[in-house]
């Protein structure tokens, strides 16, 4: 689209935003249910699109995208009436004679910028919250997954008028033109580097932003963990979607005494999941591919550099540029000088390090920017509490991985370099809403505070301070 066409869409939505903001609970729920029905009746089409874009297994599309979306819509419809209802507040002594409450109102024109790794789910999930809040929206899917972007556009065109929700396809130049417009809120999912550009553009209009980013999410395994079960769950979480998940474990810190058993269990789990017949992982129908050659070369470069600096490949390492394939790879002997320990890998390479004392693991975690997720595997209550109290992360899971994103009861989001703002359930609804504080006087007056001021009034005020 040309810049002038983008402006026209924006202006049409701006003219309509107050109408949509005044929509009722039932009207918003009806839109969400139409969206849910479309997703349910076009499941195969969604799976075909993600398969064409980067060979994503159907099961992973259903688990990582459709299941999350359908659950989010159902949960939102169930609770939306309560979220929209004015929230009565306690009246403090200083405000005697008044009543106060919070009314959530739509922010208005919003822009949703989605990434390529979950191209349907991460475009539609924030849209669910925007619709629930009563906003109008422009959705910009990633150009790296064109089939999925086309599906999202077609779905939105069949459900919503353009002055309410519109999908705009295009490359980075289109994104830059969109960011020039004075949106009321921007919801961006992607890398910290691009997020900085989004924040700069938003600052020009004092636009609020939600940033869902990533970072190096650690997975800590202590000596009390169930080694076999933990290894299996980490393998699943890491290599799901070929490691292209913002909350995937990016490196493992395992207690030295269980390291050998853990590595054996990791190798066995990789074999069991992706090469049970011994025909090679490349033949597996359960293993996705890297989205494009650029990202393939980036990950291969990280791997080559690590090996050149002394890291050892203890499992995997095979690759095919033609099919954008890198086998599930475990690295040991890594150091902070290597890019695999400096950058988010976002691919099927997992560095594994050992520690002797838990403080060493915590020092390693705290030496890096705050991660989007932290995973702890332990059956020791004291160890669990110690790690949670001495680290900071967007979310923290104990003996569990990945499922925080699909739990609408939990706020999902990062902190610092891993993001700002929250999604999921009521937290997503509030992200697209302005919490407007309203106060009404029911009786009494403040006339006794009006000038001219007397010494007697000042004396009363000073005494009153003691009761606040």
Question: Can you tell me about this structure?
Answer:
The structure is a single chain. With 468 residues, the chain is of the alpha/beta class. The protein folds into two domains: 3-213 and 418-436, Aldehyde Dehydrogenase, Chain A, domain 1 (3-Layer(aba) Sandwich); 218-407, Aldehyde Dehydrogenase, Chain A, domain 2 (3-Layer(aba) Sandwich), CATH 3.40.309.10. It contains 15 helices and 18 strands. The protein has helices spanning 3-21, 25-41, 43-54, 58-84, 121-133, 146-159, 172-179, 192-203, 227-239, 259-274, 293-308, 358-366, 381-389, 425-431, 455-465, and strands at residues 87-89, 98-106, 109-113, 136-140, 165-167, 185-189, 208-212, 218-221, 251-255, 312-315, 319-320, 325-326, 329-332, 349-355, 373-377, 395-398, 419-420, 433-441. The strands form four sheets. A seven-stranded mixed beta sheet has the order 10-13-14-9-8-15-16, sandwiched between helices. A six-stranded mixed beta sheet has the order 5-4-3-6-7-17, sandwiched between helices. The protein has a three-stranded antiparallel beta sheet with strand order 1-2-18. Helix 13 links the parallel strand 15 and strand 16 (395-398). Helix 2 runs antiparallel to helix 4 (58-84), helix 4 runs parallel beside helix 5 and helix 5 (121-133) crosses helix 14. The model has no long low-confidence stretch (mean pLDDT 97).
């Amino acid at each position: 689209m040309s810049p002038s066409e983008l402006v026209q869409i924006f202006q049409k939505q701006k003219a309509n935003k107050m109408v949509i903001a005044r929509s009722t609970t039932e009207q918003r729920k009806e839109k969400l249910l139409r969206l849910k029905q479309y997703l349910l009746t076009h499941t195969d089409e969604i799976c075909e699109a993600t398969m064409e874009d980067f060979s994503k297994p159907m099961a992973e599309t259903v688990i990582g995208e459709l299941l999350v979306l359908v659950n989010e819509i159902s949960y939102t419809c169930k609770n939306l009436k309560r979220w929209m209802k004015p929230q009565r507040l306690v009246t403090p002594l200083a405000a005697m004679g008044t009543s106060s409450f919070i009314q959530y109102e739509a922010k208005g024109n919003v822009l949703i910028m989605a990434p390529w790794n979950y191209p349907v789910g991460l475009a539609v999930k924030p849209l669910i919250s925007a619709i629930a809040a009563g906003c109008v929206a422009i959705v910009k899917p990633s150009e790296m997954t064109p089939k999925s972007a086309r599906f999202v556009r077609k779905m939105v065109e069949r459900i919503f008028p353009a002055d309410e929700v519109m999908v705009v396809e295009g490359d980075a130049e289109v994104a830059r033109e969109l960011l020039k417009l004075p949106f009321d809120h921007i919801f961006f999912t992607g890398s910290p580097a691009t997020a900085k550009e989004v924040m700069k553009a938003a600052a020009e209009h004092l636009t609020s932003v939600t940033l869902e980013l990533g970072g190096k999410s650690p997975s800590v395994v202590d000596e009390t963990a169930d080694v076999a079960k933990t290894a299996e769950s980490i393998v699943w979480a890491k290599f799901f979607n070929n490691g292209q998940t913002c909350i995937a474990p990016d490196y493992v810190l395992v207690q030295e005494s269980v390291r050998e058993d853990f590595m054996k269990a990791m190798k066995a789990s990789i074999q069991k999941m992706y090469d049970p017949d011994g025909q090679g992982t490349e033949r597996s129908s359960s293993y996705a591919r890297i989205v494009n050659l650029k990202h393939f070369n980036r990950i291969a470069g990280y791997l080559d550099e690590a090996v050149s600096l002394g890291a050892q490949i203890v499992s995997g390492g095979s690759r095919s540029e033609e099919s954008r394939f890198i086998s599930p790879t475990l690295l040991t002997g890594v150091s902070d000088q290597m890019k695999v320990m400096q950058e988010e890998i976002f691919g099927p390479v997992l560095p594994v390090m050992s520690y002797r004392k838990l403080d060493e693991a915590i020092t390693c975690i705290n030496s890096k920017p705050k991660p989007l997720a932290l995973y702890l595997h332990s059956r020791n209550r004291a160890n669990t509490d110690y790690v949670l109290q001495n680290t900071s992360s967007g979310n923290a899971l104990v003996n569990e991985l990945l499922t925080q994103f699909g739990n609408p009861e939990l706020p999902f989001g990062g902190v610092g370099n891993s993001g700002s703002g929250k999604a999921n359930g009521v937290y997503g609804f509030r992200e697209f809403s302005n919490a407007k504080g309203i106060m009404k006087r029911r009786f009494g007056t403040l006339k006794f505070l009006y000038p001219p001021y007397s010494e007697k009034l000042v004396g009363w005020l000073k005494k009153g301070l003691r009761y606040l």
